[in-house]
Specification:
By secondary structure, this protein is an alpha/beta fold. The protein has helices spanning about 5-15, 20-25, 30-35, 45-55, 60, 80-100, 100-130, 145-175, 225-265, 270-300, 305-330, 415-430, 445-470; strands at about 180-185, 190-195, 205-210, 210-215, 335, 345-350, 355-360, 370, 380-385, 395-400, 405-410, 430-435, 440-445. The chain has a four-stranded mixed beta sheet. The protein is elongated and about 130 Å long.
């Protein structure tokens, strides 16, 4: 509310007429009328006298920058925003001109430091969002890379607008709101009146003149239309991002419910499924809170933070209990790598070995073993491949320069039902298995054939090492 409106309201509240207030202030009624119409402004001494007469504080009378208007509209008025922006520039210029040199240097240094901090903060936040969130969009086929670039550019625009808003707001509350221009009616102006003849002295007439001066005050922070306009833009952009992110969150919410139902059904096999279902219930509640928050933000409904906070804390407690009990329950489980302790099918293959033959994998470990058996004919290799089902493997044969290579690797043709039964059987037996290794090989060959294969591996390695060095 402006000073003129406040003065009229306070005067009426104290049952004083303009003439009565003028008498108490030793001014004319016209002066009070001009103050209340906003055409002039009293000096600071008169304002202090008014506070005593009207039984109020200095801040109750001073202009706080907000104007109540019955003609205000929520519609965008770009002319009004431009006027406010120009007024902001004018007020900043006037304030800066009225400052002393020391105050100017201090203001410039503080605002420059603020700009540097905002640039660094924006860069950190932009890169964090890019690496943690936007990288997921690159996985979308065809349009993923372009979509990521568009979203990253939008985030840069948002951070720029936010930085401008923060800079303007901090500058306003740090400097601009502490300065106000008033008219001093007690200022004296000396006017030179030209003499009637050259010999007579010049006459000086002293008359009262209105003079603007700057005083420091501490008002309530006022808002500006163009500042609100920038805020509306940033809110619209944030709502756009909320609409994008709420879709995968809803999909995740439905997926968590499905997984929770499946886990609850499997409690007949092991207690651990019940604990997993409990944790998924907490995750469903937490996801619901996030959906409710985003939905209320998008449709501009009141966000019930207390309700969301209580449900979120409860869901986190449930998740924590589930994780703790699951970890305790897992202590009773045995960890097994590969297909140990399973009923395997033995497949037998024979491969001819000469000076150009390589058989991969060639590194000996628990899944790939060499057995020296001199009963095997030289130049022959008997390979036993242990798999979950018959012919659950592939032997690939191809030529590479001087070598003929046989490559053995698993054929992952186990269907969903077979995999499901395998996992359920392991959990019932309190086994956690690494399913990366789904086959084992044993190669039976004579000592001469083994030495030949080893020489072939060394030669193959030497050729490729030289090739990489030359490259």
């Amino acid at each position: 509310m402006r000073f003129c409106d406040k003065l009229a309201k306070k005067r009426k509240n104290n049952n004083l007429s303009q003439e009565q207030l003028a008498d108490k202030l030793n001014v004319s009624r016209q002066a009070v009328s001009k103050w209340e119409s906003g055409s002039s402004y009293p000096d600071m001494e008169k304002i202090i006298q008014m506070t005593k007469i009207l039984n109020c504080t200095l801040e109750d009378l001073l202009d706080d920058g907000t104007i109540n208007s019955t003609n205000s509209s929520n519609k965008l008025n770009f002319n009004s925003y431009m006027q406010e922006f120009l007024a902001f520039i004018t007020k900043t210029y006037n304030m800066f001109c009225s400052m002393k040199l020391k105050e100017k240097i201090k203001c410039i240094m503080e605002m420059s430091l603020l700009i540097i901090i905002l640039i660094i903060a924006s860069a950190i936040i932009d890169n964090a969002i890019d690496s943690l969130i936007l990288d997921w969009f690159r996985r979308i086929p065809t349009i993923g890379f372009e979509l990521k670039n568009i979203l990253f550019n939008l985030i840069i625009i948002i951070s720029l607008i936010l930085s401008i808003i923060i800079f303007i707001h901090l500058f306003k509350i740090r400097y601009l709101d502490y300065f106000v221009t008033i008219e001093d009616n007690n200022a004296i102006k000396k006017v030179i009146e030209e003499p009637f003849d050259k010999e007579s002295e010049k006459k000086y007439i002293y008359e009262k003149a209105k003079k603007e001066k700057i005083i420091i005050r501490d008002p309530k922070h006022s808002s500006m239309n163009f500042y609100n306009f920038l805020t509306k833009i940033i809110i619209l952009i944030l709502k756009f991002f909320a609409c994008i992110f709420i879709v995968p969150i809803i999909i995740g919410f439905v997926s968590l419910i499905i997984l929770g139902v499946i886990s609850f059904y499997h409690t007949i096999y092991a207690v651990i499924f019940l604990l997993i279902a409990l944790g998924l219930t907490g995750a469903v509640l937490l996801t619901y809170c996030l959906i409710e928050f985003l939905y209320n933000f998008i449709v501009s409904k009141e966000i019930k933070f207390k309700k969301i906070f209580i449900i979120s804390i409860a869901s986190l407690v449930i998740i924590g209990i589930s994780i703790g009990l699951t970890a305790i329950n897992l202590l009773d489980y045995d960890y097994i790598e590969g297909i140990d302790k399973l009923d395997l099918v033995v497949n037998t293959e024979y491969i001819n070995v000469d000076s150009n033959t390589l058989i991969f994998p060639h590194i000996e470990n628990k899944y790939n073993q060499y057995v020296i058996d001199n009963t095997i004919e030289d130049g022959k290799a008997k390979i036993e491949i242990n798999t979950l089902k018959k012919e659950n493997y592939i032997i690939e044969e191809y030529n590479d320069k001087k070598f003929k290579i046989y490559n053995l690797y698993p054929n992952y043709d186990i269907n969903f039902k077979e995999a499901y039964n395998l996992i359920i059987n392991d959990i019932e037996n309190k086994i956690i298995r690494d399913y990366s290794y789904s086959y084992q090989t044993k190669m039976y060959l004579s000592q001469n054939t083994y030495d030949l294969l080893k020489r072939n591996y060394d030669e193959y390695k030497r050729l490729y090492d030289n090739q990489y060095e030359n490259y």
